[in-house]
Design brief:
single chain; 561 residues; Aspartate Aminotransferase, domain 2; 3 domains; seven-stranded mixed sheet; 11 strands; 41% helix; globular
Length: 561
């Protein structure tokens, strides 16, 4: 083909259409869906599988050659979809119970994509127009669900990890107002919970606080954070002259959806401030990126129960709502719309700040050191970039979140969440009939995760099975390690022989579901449904798949070791 100057220029312009009517976006998107659909129909499982696994080896090599001339968009799309979408999870599929992703609401996806296509920057109103208002609207809706009695603020950011960054940064500025200029004192500490997400410690690392300055609050038996341990450690640390800038507590942990006693921690913080005559208040942040969703049950009539939610599930939902509703007493909290029932593409997170005045702790202009003249802020009525960690933020996430909230409504989100809780309870009940499988989070879990321990045949009747979580003896630690090794080997085998072939349920393995006081880690397999299509049929199939595979593994593999 002859590539003239005019042809190259005309091809270039066609890829950047000015008018929507001239755009090939919809056509190309539909074409990509068609290519993807062919892949999906070959298996229709929880992942898009590759027919020829050997092909993966050559993908990087083949695509690393930068073409001299542009290639037709449909050819490019077909090649990219056919090669790079291999092994990607499908969160809408009810057999995918791998982790806490989210099945995406199509409306949310469309508006997210449209914002990307128009390349809307949520920096200021000059670069975002009215799209910037969507952030305020979502923030107002969440504030209403949380029943805030004062004006709060929300900032969309790149993920749940970033919501923790914001909280820790606010805490730093509250405790050490000039820290942005002079740095962080060596005696500054933050408190986190035992079952916290690893991002809490990572935040301390990245913000320069240092992981050695992270103090961990021990858990109660139900995995909520022990308020007595927190008080003892806070008092001890303050007596040594340390500065406690932030306390991050649980608002729905990854494994058990555990929510701490938020109000009790706020009262404890206030007690310490008074007792030690602190000039600041340690910032209390609730890591509620998953647990926030129970807020949608605000004003639900649990007596009439018009959604006809299962009685036991309803009781657990009410308990969880009562816990998370105390989030209004905290200083800040996080929301991930790309997890659980959030229904949005990744990433789509917002940090909620309950007192809008705390935004000043994030202001880049606060110390008159940073000049954002490149953005000409004096010509913007609304310029959240003054407060955001990022300068460039996409307009897509707040539009997607707003679309999801509006298309489901409060009742739709209630029904979606209730279904997952109901099916999780059904899953746990099915497991009870098996001697060699135990649900770890049966009694105290109010969410929709099922954590299971699988026992080898020779240990299924061992009395240590009933005291794993409370016996600190070396004998029990050895027993735990034996079971951990068995579960890991079974998962590796099941993943290779079944899950990687797209047959049945896909779940995940955790090497450290719980770390006991004696240092032993409890491993387990994790069933984490998020699909709105998940029902009893798929819950039953999941247990049958796992138990059936376990029987085959014990007979063919384990018995011959």
């Amino acid at each position: 083909m002859i590539y003239s100057k005019n042809k190259i220029y005309n091809d270039l312009k066609r890829l950047f259409p000015i008018d929507c009517k001239d755009s090939k976006f919809c056509d190309l998107f539909k074409f990509c869906h068609t290519v993807l659909d062919k892949r999906i129909k070959k298996n229709n499982g929880p992942r898009i599988l590759n027919v020829d696994n050997k092909k993966n080896i050559t993908i990087v090599k083949n695509f690393s050659n930068f073409p001299k001339h542009g290639i037709h968009p449909k050819i490019v799309c077909e090649k990219i979809v056919s090669n790079f979408f291999i092994n990607t999870p499908r969160w809408r599929h009810p057999n995918l119970q791998h982790n806490v992703g989210a099945g995406v609401n199509t409306t949310a996806s469309v508006l997210y994509s449209l914002a990307l296509d128009e390349n809307i920057y949520n920096i200021n109103d000059g670069l975002a127009g009215n799209v910037l208002l969507a952030e305020q609207v979502v923030s107002n809706i969440l504030s209403e669900l949380a029943n805030l009695d004062r004006k709060g603020a929300g900032l969309f950011t790149f993920g749940g990890t970033a919501t923790n960054y914001y909280a820790l940064k606010i805490g730093l500025k509250k405790a050490v107002p000039n820290s942005g200029k002079v740095g962080i004192p060596k005696n500054l500490k933050i408190f986190v919970t035992k079952d916290s997400h690893f991002s809490h410690t990572v935040s301390a690392d990245w913000l320069g606080i240092g992981t050695d300055n992270v103090i961990t609050i021990e858990p109660n038996n139900d995995r909520t954070s022990n308020i007595i341990d927190a008080e003892n450690k806070l008092r001890s640390s303050l007596k040594k002259g340390n500065i406690i800038s932030s306390i991050i507590i649980n608002g729905g942990t990854t494994y058990g959806h555990v929510v701490d006693d938020i109000l009790a921690f706020v009262k404890l913080r206030d007690k310490m401030v008074k007792e030690f005559s602190l000039s600041y208040k340690p910032h209390i942040h609730v890591d509620s990126v998953i647990g926030w969703s129970w807020l949608v049950f605000k004003n639900y009539n649990f007596s009439k129960n018009y959604l006809k939610i299962d009685k036991i599930a309803l009781e657990k939902i009410k308990q969880q709502y009562d816990k998370i509703s105390e989030i209004k007493y905290a200083d800040s909290w996080g929301v991930d719309f790309h997890k659980g029932v959030g229904g949005c593409p990744v990433d789509c997170s917002i940090v909620m700040i309950n007192n809008i005045n705390d935004l000043q702790c994030l202001s880049k202009k606060d110390d008159n050191v940073i000049d954002m003249h490149q953005l000409a802020p004096e010509f913007s009525l609304n310029s959240p970039s003054d407060y955001t960690l990022e300068t460039s933020r996409s307009g897509g996430p707040p539009l997607a979140a707003l679309a999801h909230l509006y298309t489901l409504g409060q009742s739709g989100m209630q029904r979606n969440l209730a279904n997952l809780v109901e099916q999780s309870l059904y899953t746990k009940k099915m497991v009870e009939s098996f001697e060699d499988v135990v649900v770890c989070n049966k009694n105290d879990n109010l969410g929709y995760v099922t954590m299971m321990r699988l026992y080898p045949p020779e240990l299924k009747n061992n009395p240590k099975k009933n005291v794993e979580f409370i016996d600190n003896s070396q004998e029990c630690i050895d027993f735990i390690n034996q079971v951990n090794a068995y579960i890991k080997e079974f998962f590796t085998w099941d993943n290779k022989t079944r899950m990687m072939k797209g047959a049945g349920v896909e779940y995940s393995f955790s090497s450290g579901y719980i770390t006991l006081n004696n240092g032993a880690k409890i491993s387990g397999i994790k069933l984490y449904p998020v699909s709105p299509h998940f029902n009893k049929k798929y819950a039953k199939q999941a247990i049958e798949d796992i138990i059936g595979q376990k029987e085959r593994f014990d007979k063919k593999i384990w018995s011959k070791k």
